[in-house]
Structures are given as structure tokens and as C-alpha cells.
Amino acid sequence: QVRLQESGPGLVKPSQTLSLTCTVSDDSVTTNDAYWNWIRQSPGKGLEYIGFITYNGYTAISPSLKSRTSIARDTIRNQITLQLSSATPADTAVYYCAGPRDSWGQGTQVTVSS
User: Fold this and answer.
1) Diameter of the chain by CA atoms?
2) In this structure, are residues 96 and 40 in contact, taking their beta carbons and an 8 Å threshold?
3) Alpha helices in 1-114 (DSSP H)
4) Cα(31)–Cα(16) distance, integer angstroms
5) What are phi and psi of 22, to 5 degrees?
6) Phi and psi for 101 in degrees, rounded to 5?
7) Count of CA atoms in the C-beta half-sphere (13 A) of 103
8) Distance CA 54, CA 4 (A)
9) Separation of alpha carbons 26 and 71, rounded Å
10) FRET pair for 95, CA 20 to 30 Å: which of 20, 35, 75, 109?
């Protein structure tokens, strides 16, 4: 069973870059055909899909976030990263990473506030 653990600062100031890491255990970010996803849930709202990166580094980002979002992988540390620039309070959410075989992390709360 793949294990995923999100981490990052719980508080980000407006206009700063929100940076999160998903550490993958019991699998590899380069496992053939694997897709690694970022999803978030804002207070009182449903899940919002952010984007993914594949086992070979291809990325796709939701059009609504594409201009200020990047997803990358670190094959040495076996991690997936998310960067969201120009953060606003609307980016306040619980952020999840998800991977193969319906694996999900527990999520990490990020609040954007001054």
C-alpha cells in the first residue's frame, strides 16, 4: 500500500508562494504508469482538483490555477511538490496528494492570511 504524507507551512501570507511536499513511501514516484495528484478542499466547499505529474515528469494543471501553479517531482527524495504563487485567502484549504491504487495522504491545512 502506497503511503503519502503532505507537509508544508500551515500559514502563508497573501502574495507569497504556497509550497507543499508530498513524501511517498512504499512506492516510487517513477513507478511505471503512476500518476501523482494534488487536490484541495476549501472550507465549506467540495474537492477541487489541482493537477498531476506522471511517473516520467509530464504535468497537467487545472486551467483555473495553471498560471500560478507548478508541480514537480524529486526522484532522489521520492517526493512530489506543489507551488502556488501569489496566494490569496481563497487558497485557504486542506491540501491532499493522491497516488496509485487510490492512495491518499491525510491532508495538510494551509491558511492564507496576514
Assistant:
1) 42
2) yes
3) none
4) 33
5) -120, 115
6) 55, 40
7) 19
8) 16
9) 21
10) 75
Residues linked to residue 41 through DSSP beta bridges, in sequence order: 47, 94
Q: For 80-97, what is the mean pLDDT?
A: 98
Q: State the residue for C-alpha cell 484541495.
A: 40
Q: The C-alpha cell of 60 is what?
A: 497537467
Q: How far apart are CA 66 and CA 43, in angstroms?
A: 22
- Give the dihedral of Cα atoms 93, 89, 50, 68; nearest 10 deg: -150
Tens digit of pLDDT for each residue in 23-67? 999 999 999 999 999 999 999 999 999 999 999 999 999 999 999
β-pairing, 108-112 vs 11-12, is: parallel
Cell 482538483 sits at which residue? 49
